[in-house]
Design a protein that fits this description.
Mean pLDDT: 80
Number of helices: 6
Order of helices and strands: HHHHHH
Largest sheet: none
Shape: elongated
Helix content: over 70%
Protein backbone atom coordinates (compact mmCIF):
# COMPACT_ATOMS: atom_id res chain seq x y z
CA UNK A 1 0.00 0.00 0.00
CA UNK A 2 1.27 3.44 -0.88
CA UNK A 3 1.43 5.38 2.38
CA UNK A 4 4.15 7.92 1.77
CA UNK A 5 5.03 10.87 3.95
CA UNK A 6 2.00 12.77 2.65
CA UNK A 7 -0.35 10.18 4.21
CA UNK A 8 -2.29 9.42 1.03
CA UNK A 9 -3.28 5.86 0.33
CA UNK A 10 -3.62 3.99 -2.96
CA UNK A 11 -7.05 5.44 -3.70
CA UNK A 12 -5.73 9.00 -4.02
CA UNK A 13 -2.95 8.09 -6.41
CA UNK A 14 -4.94 5.49 -8.33
CA UNK A 15 -7.72 7.91 -9.21
CA UNK A 16 -5.21 10.38 -10.64
CA UNK A 17 -3.35 7.76 -12.65
CA UNK A 18 -6.44 5.97 -13.94
CA UNK A 19 -7.45 9.05 -15.95
CA UNK A 20 -4.02 9.90 -17.36
CA UNK A 21 -0.97 7.69 -17.89
CA UNK A 22 2.02 8.17 -15.62
CA UNK A 23 4.62 10.75 -16.57
CA UNK A 24 8.02 9.62 -17.77
CA UNK A 25 9.83 7.83 -20.54
CA UNK A 26 7.96 5.32 -22.64
CA UNK A 27 11.12 3.82 -24.08
CA UNK A 28 11.40 0.02 -24.01
CA UNK A 29 12.86 -1.38 -20.76
CA UNK A 30 16.05 -2.71 -22.38
CA UNK A 31 16.79 0.84 -23.60
CA UNK A 32 16.03 2.45 -20.24
CA UNK A 33 18.32 -0.08 -18.52
CA UNK A 34 21.40 1.25 -20.35
CA UNK A 35 22.16 4.92 -19.72
CA UNK A 36 24.07 5.58 -22.95
CA UNK A 37 21.45 3.85 -25.06
CA UNK A 38 18.66 5.73 -23.28
CA UNK A 39 20.42 9.07 -23.80
CA UNK A 40 20.85 8.24 -27.50
CA UNK A 41 17.16 7.31 -27.65
CA UNK A 42 16.21 10.65 -26.09
CA UNK A 43 18.40 12.58 -28.53
CA UNK A 44 16.79 10.70 -31.43
CA UNK A 45 13.27 11.39 -30.14
CA UNK A 46 14.16 15.06 -29.65
CA UNK A 47 15.53 15.40 -33.19
CA UNK A 48 12.53 13.64 -34.78
CA UNK A 49 10.11 15.77 -32.72
CA UNK A 50 12.01 18.93 -33.62
CA UNK A 51 11.89 18.05 -37.33
CA UNK A 52 8.14 17.44 -37.17
CA UNK A 53 7.55 20.70 -35.27
CA UNK A 54 9.78 22.55 -37.76
CA UNK A 55 7.70 21.17 -40.62
CA UNK A 56 4.55 22.29 -38.78
CA UNK A 57 5.91 25.81 -38.36
CA UNK A 58 6.68 25.94 -42.08
CA UNK A 59 3.13 24.72 -42.79
CA UNK A 60 1.77 27.70 -40.87
CA UNK A 61 2.85 29.95 -43.76
CA UNK A 62 2.47 27.48 -46.66
CA UNK A 63 -0.53 25.25 -47.32
CA UNK A 64 -0.75 22.38 -44.90
CA UNK A 65 -2.10 21.36 -41.50
CA UNK A 66 0.47 23.37 -39.49
CA UNK A 67 -1.02 23.24 -36.00
CA UNK A 68 -1.91 19.57 -36.35
CA UNK A 69 1.68 18.73 -37.28
CA UNK A 70 3.04 20.87 -34.42
CA UNK A 71 0.85 19.01 -31.94
CA UNK A 72 2.03 15.76 -33.52
CA UNK A 73 5.64 16.79 -32.85
CA UNK A 74 4.72 17.62 -29.27
CA UNK A 75 3.16 14.15 -28.97
CA UNK A 76 6.43 12.63 -30.21
CA UNK A 77 8.33 14.59 -27.55
CA UNK A 78 5.75 13.56 -24.94
CA UNK A 79 6.71 9.92 -25.42
CA UNK A 80 10.02 10.72 -23.77
CA UNK A 81 10.02 14.06 -21.95
CA UNK A 82 7.95 14.91 -18.88
CA UNK A 83 7.79 18.65 -19.71
CA UNK A 84 6.24 17.83 -23.10
CA UNK A 85 3.74 15.48 -21.45
CA UNK A 86 2.69 18.26 -19.08
CA UNK A 87 2.34 20.79 -21.94
CA UNK A 88 0.36 18.27 -24.00
CA UNK A 89 -1.99 17.48 -21.09
CA UNK A 90 -2.56 21.21 -20.51
CA UNK A 91 -3.26 21.74 -24.22
CA UNK A 92 -5.71 18.83 -24.34
CA UNK A 93 -7.51 20.16 -21.27
CA UNK A 94 -7.79 23.68 -22.77
CA UNK A 95 -9.01 22.36 -26.14
CA UNK A 96 -11.64 20.23 -24.39
CA UNK A 97 -12.79 23.22 -22.34
CA UNK A 98 -12.99 25.40 -25.46
CA UNK A 99 -14.99 22.74 -27.32
CA UNK A 100 -17.44 22.43 -24.44
CA UNK A 101 -17.74 26.20 -24.23
CA UNK A 102 -18.33 26.49 -27.97
CA UNK A 103 -21.18 23.97 -27.75
CA UNK A 104 -22.92 26.03 -25.06
CA UNK A 105 -26.22 27.26 -26.58
CA UNK A 106 -25.74 30.83 -25.28
CA UNK A 107 -22.27 31.08 -26.81
CA UNK A 108 -23.46 29.57 -30.11
CA UNK A 109 -26.38 32.02 -30.27
CA UNK A 110 -24.05 34.95 -29.56
CA UNK A 111 -21.60 33.80 -32.24
CA UNK A 112 -24.39 33.39 -34.80
CA UNK A 113 -25.72 36.87 -34.02
CA UNK A 114 -22.24 38.44 -34.26
CA UNK A 115 -21.54 36.66 -37.56
CA UNK A 116 -24.88 37.79 -38.99
CA UNK A 117 -24.29 41.40 -37.91
CA UNK A 118 -20.78 41.31 -39.41
CA UNK A 119 -22.06 39.93 -42.73
CA UNK A 120 -24.81 42.58 -42.88
CA UNK A 121 -22.25 45.35 -42.27
CA UNK A 122 -20.00 43.96 -45.03
CA UNK A 123 -22.95 43.66 -47.43
CA UNK A 124 -23.98 47.27 -46.73
CA UNK A 125 -20.43 48.53 -47.28
CA UNK A 126 -20.08 46.59 -50.55
CA UNK A 127 -23.50 47.88 -51.64
CA UNK A 128 -22.47 51.49 -50.92
CA UNK A 129 -19.21 51.01 -52.84
CA UNK A 130 -20.97 49.49 -55.86
CA UNK A 131 -23.66 52.23 -55.79
CA UNK A 132 -21.00 54.96 -55.58
CA UNK A 133 -18.42 53.62 -58.04
CA UNK A 134 -20.18 50.84 -59.95
CA UNK A 135 -18.65 47.56 -61.01
CA UNK A 136 -15.77 47.79 -63.44
CA UNK A 137 -14.37 44.49 -64.58
CA UNK A 138 -10.56 44.51 -64.92
CA UNK A 139 -10.71 43.74 -68.64
CA UNK A 140 -13.06 46.68 -69.27
CA UNK A 141 -10.98 49.36 -67.54
CA UNK A 142 -9.86 52.10 -69.91
CA UNK A 143 -6.19 52.92 -69.70
Amino acid sequence: MNTGSDGRGDSATTSATSEEPALGSRAPEFIKARRTLHLSWQVGVFIVGLAVIGAGVIMLVVPGPGWLVIFGGMAIWATEFVWAQIVLRWTKRKVTEAAQKALDPKVRRRNIILTTVGLVIIAVLVGIYVWQFGIAMPWNIDR
